[in-house]
Amino acid sequence: MKRIIFPLLAVLVLSCNRGVGKEEVPGYDRNNFFVVDYESVLNNKVQVNLSELTDDIEYIKLETNENCLLHPRAEYFFTDDYIFIDNSTHILQFDRKGKFIRQIGKQGRGPGEIGLIRVLSVLDEQNQLVVQTNWARKLYYFSYEGVFLKSVKVKDVRRIKAIPGKRLVYFAGCVYGYEDYMFALVNTTGDTLDVVNNHYKWENKTGRVGTMSYHLFVPFYFYNNTISFKSMHNDTVYHVSGDSIKPEYLIELGKYQLPQEERVEVPSSGSFPEFGEKSKAYRFCSVFEADESLFISSTGYQDKIYYYMIYKKPTGSGKLLVDNNNDPGMIINDIDGGPDFWPLGTVNDSTVYMPVLPLDMLNKDFRDKLINAEGVDPEKKNELIQMIDGLNENDNPVLMIVRLK
After folding, report:
1. Hey, which bits of 38-106 come out as E strands?
2. Strand pairing partners for 104?
3. Pick from 88, 115, 114, 243: which is nearest to 169 by CA?
4. Exposed, middle or buried by CB within 10 Å (0-12, 13-18, 19+), for 151?
5. Cα 303 to Cα 9, 89, 281, 306, 355, distances in angstroms
6. 90-94 long-range CB contacts below 8 Å, 24 or more apart?
7. How many CB atoms within 10 Å of residue 150?
8. What is the pTM of this model?
9. Which residues contact residue 270 at a Cβ distance below 8 angstroms, ignoring those fewer than 6 apart?
């Protein structure tokens, strides 16, 4: 069956508030299922300053040379000692100061050659990197020193994430209509430990599958020593507990939830142009956790407006971030006057990050805004200006690191 992939409009996600502190709530248990009321959060608009979340910002300048130029859609993975970057056809390894160490793997289809990375997993306890490629039905294992260790045959699954304990999480995608499960937890010998069943199936006699592809949607995230995951069209978030998959919470989109029968993969939904028109009223979301809070970003299927929300799990309260005009916005940088912020992911359970393009910081409008910024720490502002003065517009991104209070 031929698959046609339609890319979604994509914009880098970037944002946070005081409702995100470390307040202790007695009896909080992450295994207690809860519901995030998306529509209610939309009505709770709050302008958030970065100083409410952190006391300082760390900027990591990633070294730039001809051996470590980053792909526009690079993905970042942090350990205590290293930053690993999925660079599409190979892995780049930096130390935590941003110094380039080595390239791991290379493009090609021979033994140990990656071709194109579909999913990168970092197993820090084993000092191993696991690559699911686009071409081979195999997982390739590399050491932190860049040595190719082995390849392991796997099913032809849309995305596979390797996790500690010699286990894998399969994300089937459910785009053909007949898949039995959406997610599966398996061991490395192929035994299925648990699954999340696919409850919506259809028959496709057209010979084609149209799939929405959104490069910033990531079904997996790690928090509190386990992996959590959701699909693009199903807003229940699950996590792995031992050898079981447990539902953790639901992001209830209400009137913004795309009906399953209207998905572009379903033949009865019509062609892609028809889907484009019908989907304008609906949204999808991505989420990850840090410091007992959910960082939720959402957008429509056909627009470029992003809605950034922070939901504090112990108190069950959520806020929609807005700018000075009360429009959907990001966290306002009132510490050094630099880039406004929305975390793209986590460094660890209490620290989040965002990559910033040097070209954006060298922009005249940005520089004028930075120089004229008031109410910020003058020393920190000067330090940021000095860092920017040392940048070239073609340099690798700068990582903005924020440790939550």
Report:
1. 45-46, 58-61, 75-78, 82-86, 91-95, 100-104
2. 91
3. 243
4. middle
5. 7, 30, 10, 9, 23
6. 90/114, 90/117, 91/117, 91/120, 91/129, 91/131, 91/142, 92/68, 93/144, 93/146, 94/62, 94/63, 94/68
7. 11
8. 0.91
9. 278
As a whole number of Å, the CA-based R_g of the chain is 21
Query: Which fold does the domain 2-403 belong to in CATH?
Result: Neuraminidase (2.120.10)
Characterize the bridge pairing of strands 167-171 and 345-348.
Answer: unpaired
Query: What are the tokens at 109?
Result: 């289809």
Q: What's the full length of the chain, in residues?
A: 405
Q: Which amino acid is at 27?
A: G
* pLDDT tens digit at each of 405 positions of the chain: 544 444 444 333 333 332 333 334 444 566 789 999 999 999 999 999 999 999 999 999 999 999 999 999 999 999 999 999 999 999 999 999 999 999 999 887 777 788 899 999 999 999 999 999 987 789 999 999 999 999 999 988 999 999 999 999 999 989 899 999 999 999 988 899 999 999 999 998 887 777 776 766 789 999 999 999 999 889 999 999 999 999 999 999 999 999 999 998 898 877 778 888 888 899 999 999 999 899 999 998 887 899 999 999 989 999 999 999 999 999 999 999 999 999 999 999 999 999 999 999 999 999 999 999 999 999 999 999 999 999 999 999 999 999 999
Phi and psi at 233, nearest 5°, equal -105, 0
CA nearest to 395, candidates 145, 63, 149, 102:
63
Distance CA(24)–CA(31), nearest Å, equals: 17
Asked whether 174 and 198 are in contact (CB, 8 A), the reply is yes
CA distance 358 to 391: 6
Q: The tokens of 313 are what?
A: 């799990």
**Number of alpha carbons in the 13 Å side-chain half-sphere of residue 229:** 26
